[in-house]
Amino acid sequence: MKGFILTLTILCFGITYAQKEGQDFCKGLSNGAYFPLDIKNKKLLWSDTFYFETFEKDTVIGGNKYLKFKQVWEKGNNDVLFFREKTGVVFQYFPENNKEIVRIDPSFKPGDTWKNELQDCVFTLIGYDEKLETPYCQYNGLLAIKAVYPKVTYVFYYQKGYGYVGATKNGKTLSAASPE
Known about the structure:
Blueprint: H1 2-17, E1 41-46, E2 49-61, E3 64-73, E4 78-86, E5 89-94, E6 99-104, E7 113-115, E8 122-133, E9 138-148, E10 153-159, E11 163-169, E12 172-178
Antiparallel strand pairs: 1-2, 1-12, 2-3, 3-4, 4-5, 5-6, 7-8, 8-9, 9-10, 10-11, 11-12
């Protein structure tokens, strides 16, 4: 019984830690950003594995203040991401090639396109009222961005007030935000 209560307490803490006050995991926040940088910890499923994305620290690069996030994968690999926001536009910096790209600009309209830092992927904004079903939620009102790489195409989904909630490949859900 003690183990059950401990597990339940940890699960509840994890759910609230990955959200903002007053936020329903499946509903987001209607007045929030599609790419909020103030959520400090998320668990994300990807194919047959998962990773935790956590805020590390503020970092200044080239005179710009970035938020440094670390992705720790199930098998122990790590990725580091640098984001900054300016007037609603979210940028991502890639230190390995000293490039910065726009991740999302609220002025983008369906059909607008842009490229990744290596110029080998074309992103296209699909729409702001898209749907996605994951093992945890049936989402509505999502921002959807198609990412066409040389050998694979994904659609990434973002929820207002929470950010990334999942991805599809060939129309099937490949990735999902987890409430754990």
